[in-house]
Amino acid sequence: SNRAISDSYEANMLRGLTKLLKFRYHTESCADPSYGEKSFGDIPAVREVRKLHKDANRRQVLSPRSSDEKLKWLNWDEYLGVIKAIRDDLLHEICCYEKVENDSLNSTVQKPKRKRRINDHKILDADNTSVSTCKKSFSPAQRRIATKYQGYLILAFLACVPDRQRTFRELEIGKNFLKDETINSWTIKHGPNDYKTGSTYGDRPPLVLSSDLTPAIDDFLFRWRPCLVPNGEHF
Known about the structure:
Blueprint: H1 7-24, H2 44-62, H3 76-106, E1 121-124, E2 130-134, H4 140-160, H5 165-169, E3 177-180, E4 185-188, H6 198-201, E5 207-208, H7 214-224
Antiparallel strand pairs: 1-2, 3-4, 4-5
């Protein structure tokens, strides 16, 4: 449903417009506050916006919220339902992709070999120098599945480890994202330099992801992550 602008947002916008108008007319105003005159009181545009701002401030004190706060939150079962729905959609797309690939292979007729140029994907660093070359071109379907797979796993990680978003944005394979073979689970390991109170508390205990996710993580890293042609070790 549509919602109207909130009174507090209106007041904030008008306060910003007032400052903008003061900047615009700062060389044209002759009002002198030292003689009891209000600053910029001789600028009609400033007077009118101030009037609107005062009215918006008065209204925002008693005005109800413009949106229902309850609609902004998911309960735990709803969040798990979102993860399951995304997983089911991902598995369906992988199944369709594999079927198309198998049908394509089965219908291929042996043809004389001919030379074919491989479409190289070059990844450049900030200096425009080639840092790696991928000799395999990936289809749009593969890249779409890889992106969707990545998103699904991030949401699933949050269900296991409700940590800050920076934790997942900065996951690096082999550095702070490690596989513990003894428990067959992937873990997130933070050292003293990975969070602002590290100098006080040192290493954080490893954050262990559910072993139920291990096959999916392994599958993504081995089969689908290369489709995104990564230029580093970030997950």
